[in-house]
């Protein structure tokens, strides 16, 4: 039941809990237009699983009329706000304090105004994505470097990085602040920054959003015991959700709020003032940007928010993740649009590789081979991509950072340490200024590597030797598909969906952390291999839906025995396997797995488990 109140009230009206919990709507099975209707027994089993979970769900009806806590930042606006109501979902059980602290009427007014200001621009941007995709599909053209005389002029550089962003050597990646224990441990770590993640490594359930945002609030305002002042902690590189994600739990003018505006708005409203005072922000990672027009939109959002909050323009700094192949053709223009708010660009191998299937997946000349065997930063298309990121950034005085080490250091394995060190050494030799690790146990290993270099950054190393052409960026690596690679992709995809169904955005599998980036490349490759009838290297067997169905069943049977501890886990695996099969056999490629899940009734139903 949503909480709806006019924003001019200082707090929401008290609500008495109903005598009996409201009935939750019965989920409907997804309509399947691209595949054969499953048997009655499969339909009934899936419905039984969902109903089992729904029967466990409990709605929280605590009194939400407590006086809101004062926020620490003034807001340039009137205290009298519009009479138009904003609908917000009730707090999940145990998160009443977070709900009251974060979703004050002034904060909601700020997010509502932000949404109203940029709704049309967001719609235009998303429509432009569709237009470009259709144009590529219809014409068969390949992208070319963007011609932009202003961005290509030789005499501009990004604004100088603030003191705390001059050293970008080591960040922790995929740190979902919804995981309080991991987040607090990260705050105590001797790293330069923390990718405070509401995107790839985070599952955006309502409890997770509130807990994550509240934990950031507590870190910024010194409310965690035994944690120092925010000015002495690693900088928080806040990563809001990407534009493909919607916040279902807040409506403005009857429309759901774009996920990134919800995250960015609340983070700015509650944290920007204190971060600015501590010379520690606000700093952001921007995910899944596809072109200069999207960078321009973010720049306008930054300017608007700073003006509204009385913060000097240019205080916000951002690092754009170049994780879409189309963005690699507009990197200089992306930096130009954000030149007053940019610290640089970042490379990410798996989202970037998956974007080839997203944009060119129907073309047989863009089939990616087995990622575990043939796709790595030594391949020409990825090496060219990283070289161009380094050259573009350093030419304009910006930082170029590499991707995240996903390896988990479960023991003092010298071979594993050597592998990780060698891979990152190659990136440093290419000129990157830093990178990320997930496992805190790898921090001393990486710090030891940096001590052999002795630099804070390599911005002065412009890499004028780099001459990258469109053909370099689009050259697919040679190679085939192994049975083990196919099985691995199936496992990663299913386990990621199962993780989302239990409200987690990443998990560890076979010694590596897996998040939405690895899930995207996994399900993308399986879809593409089925579509183009790829063959297995040794047996020559054609990859078909039937083969994938067999591998899915084999994996689920094995997982039920080995890693599913109870009936609930086995039920999630069953549902996850069916969703995975749907995704990899769709007639049209689903653009983002996370969007597909976030809009799906099964995931929405499972969200209610923790409410």
UniProtKB/TrEMBL annotation:
Residue ranges of the region described as Disordered: 1-43
GO molecular function: malate synthase activity
Pfam families recorded: MS_C, MS_N, MS_TIM-barrel
Domain Malate synthase TIM barrel: 235-475
Malate synthase C-terminal domain ranges (all copies): 482-599
Top EC category: transferase
Compositionally biased intervals (Basic and acidic residues): 29-43
Skewed-composition ranges (Pro residues): 14-25
Highest taxon in the source lineage: Eukaryota
One GO term describing the cellular component: cytoplasm
Any one of the GO BP annotations: glyoxylate cycle
Keywords: Glyoxylate bypass, Transferase, Tricarboxylic acid cycle
Reactions it catalyzes: glyoxylate + acetyl-CoA + H2O = (S)-malate + CoA + H(+)
Residue intervals of the Malate synthase N-terminal domain: 102-146
Record EC number: 2.3.3.9
Active site (UniProt): 239 (proton acceptor), 515 (proton donor)
PANTHER family listed in its UniProt record: MALATE SYNTHASE
Protein name: malate synthase
């Amino acid at each position: 039941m949503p909480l709806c109140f006019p924003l001019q009230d200082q707090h929401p009206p008290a609500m008495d809990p109903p005598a009996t919990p409201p009935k939750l709507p019965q989920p409907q099975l997804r309509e399947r237009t691209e595949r054969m209707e499953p048997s009655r027994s499969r339909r009934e089993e899936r419905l039984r699983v969902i109903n089992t979970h729904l029967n466990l769900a409990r709605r929280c009806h605590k009194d939400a009329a407590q006086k809101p806590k004062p926020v620490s930042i003034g807001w340039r606006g009137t205290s009298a706000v519009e009479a138009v109501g904003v609908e917000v979902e009730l707090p999940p059980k145990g998160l009443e304090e977070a709900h009251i602290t974060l979703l004050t009427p002034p904060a909601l007014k700020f997010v509502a105004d932000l949404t109203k200001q940029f709704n049309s621009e967001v719609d235009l941007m998303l429509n432009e994505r569709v237009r470009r995709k259709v144009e590529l599909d219809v014409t068969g053209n390949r992208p070319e470097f963007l011609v932009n005389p202003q961005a290509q002029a030789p005499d501009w550089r990004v604004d100088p990085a603030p003191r705390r962003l001059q050293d970008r050597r080591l960040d922790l990646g995929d740190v979902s602040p919804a995981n309080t224990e991991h987040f607090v441990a990260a705050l105590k770590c001797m790293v330069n920054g923390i990718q405070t993640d509401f995107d790839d490594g985070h599952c955006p359930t309502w409890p997770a959003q509130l807990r994550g945002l509240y934990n950031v609030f507590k870190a910024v305002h010194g409310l965690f015991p035994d944690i120092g002042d925010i000015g002495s902690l690693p900088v928080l590189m806040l990563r809001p959700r990407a534009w493909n994600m919607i916040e279902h739990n807040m409506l403005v003018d009857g429309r759901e709020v774009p996920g990134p505006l919800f995250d960015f708005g609340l983070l700015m409203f509650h944290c920007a003032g204190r971060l600015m005072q501590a010379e520690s922000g606000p700093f952001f990672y921007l995910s899944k940007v596809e072109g200069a027009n999207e960078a321009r939109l973010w720049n306008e959002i930054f300017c608007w928010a700073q003006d509204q909050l009385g913060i000097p323009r240019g205080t916000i700094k951002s690092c754009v993740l170049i994780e879409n192949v189309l963005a690699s053709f507009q990197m200089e223009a992306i930096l130009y649009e954000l030149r007053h708010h940019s610290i640089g660009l970042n490379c990410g191998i798996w989202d970037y590789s998956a974007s080839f299937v997203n944009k060119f997946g129907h073309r047989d000349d863009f089939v990616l081979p087995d990622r575990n065997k043939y796709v790595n930063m030594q391949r020409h298309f990825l090496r060219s991509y990283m070289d161009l990121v380094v050259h573009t950034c350093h030419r304009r005085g910006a930082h170029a950072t590499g991707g995240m080490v996903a390896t988990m250091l479960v023991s003092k394995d010298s071979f594993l340490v050597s592998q990780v060190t060698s891979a990152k050494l190659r990136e440093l030799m290419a000129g990157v200024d830093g990178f990320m690790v997930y496992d805190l146990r790898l921090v001393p290993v990486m710090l030891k590597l940096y001590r052999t270099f002795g630099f804070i950054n390599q911005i002065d190393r412009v890499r004028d030797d780099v001459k990258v052409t469109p053909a370099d960026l689009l050259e697919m690596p040679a190679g085939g598909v192994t049975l083990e690679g196919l099985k691995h992709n199936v496992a990663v995809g299913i386990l990621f969906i199962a993780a989302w169904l239990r409200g987690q955005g990443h998990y560890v599998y076979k010694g590596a952390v897996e998040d939405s980036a690895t899930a995207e490349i996994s399900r993308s490759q399986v879809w593409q291999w089925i579509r183009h009838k790829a063959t297995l290297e040794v047996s020559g067997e054609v990859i078909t839906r039937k083969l994938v169905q067999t591998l899915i069943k084999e994996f689920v049977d094995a997982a039920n025995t080995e890693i599913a501890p109870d009936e609930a886990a086995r039920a999630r695996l069953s549902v996850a396997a069916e969703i995975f099969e749907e995704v990899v056999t769709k007639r049209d490629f689903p653009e983002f797995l996370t969007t597909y899940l976030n809009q799906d009734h099964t995931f929405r139903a499972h969200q209610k488990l923790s409410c």
